[in-house]
Design a protein that fits this description.
InterPro entries: Maj_tail_phi13
CATH architecture: Roll
Shape: globular
Number of helices: 1
Protein name: Phi13 family phage major tail protein
Distance between the termini: 15 Å
Helix content: under 10%
Number of strands: 15
Number of domains: 1
Organism: Peptoanaerobacter stomatis
Length: 193
């Protein structure tokens, strides 16, 4: 169905689904978990253009995607996310410890944007997070400033039926819209695509 919105704004209901690799390299996605405090999500498209020269001219041009970079800015990442996705651990006194050199688990990001007519939900399959970036700074008396956290992710998508799937836009009339944040994300390519 066509998106009815003329404009879109806002970011909310960010969720993540942890991927587990099964036999044959297939990734199975878990039921999504809420990641509250979404501030901003940016996407930097990484494409490479290659030109094939024949007959003394530009015969054909290929545009190849090499994985996009996402920057997710959150008020504060949950301890659950840090432990289950980034490999943090609890110390003997209950402290939360970042373990260096641990490979982060692949996740699928799900989120919602508001539009002038209806809300739209999105799925970004197979994102690999890096380390959390945070800055600390002193405060001026009487002028509180919220310090947020950011994580960069490499978004490569997944292959389904021989097609590389990137961003998935889910409109309110789509059958998976209502349960998108409560069931494990899946995708199937419609015949003829």
């Amino acid at each position: 169905m066509a998106n009815k919105n003329k404009v879109a704004y806002g970011l909310k209901l960010v969720h993540y689904s942890i991927g587990t690799e099964k036999t044959g390299g297939v990734i199975e996605w878990a039921v999504p978990v809420a990641l509250p405090g979404a501030v901003k999500l940016g996407r930097d498209l990484k494409t490479e253009t290659t030109t094939f020269i024949a007959d003394d001219s530009e015969y054909h041009t290929f545009n190849l995607s090499s994985g996009d970079t996402l920057d997710l800015n959150i008020a504060k990442f949950t301890d659950e996310f840090k432990k289950n996705v980034l490999g943090y651990a609890n110390g003997s006194n209950g402290e939360l410890i970042e373990i260096k050199g641990v490979q982060a688990k692949p996740i699928t990001l799900l989120f919602q944007e508001k539009g002038d007519k209806e809300d739209t939900r999105y799925i970004m399959f197979n994102c690999v997070p890096g380390a959390i970036k945070k800055e600390w700074e002193t405060l001026e008396p009487g002028k509180p400033k919220v310090m947020t956290e950011t994580i960069s992710l490499t978004f490569t998508g997944i292959e389904v039926s021989g097609k590389q799937i990137g961003l998935v836009e889910v409109a309110s009339e789509n059958t998976n819209y209502k349960n998108l944040f409560t069931t494990a994300p899946t995708i199937a390519v419609a015949p003829g695509i």
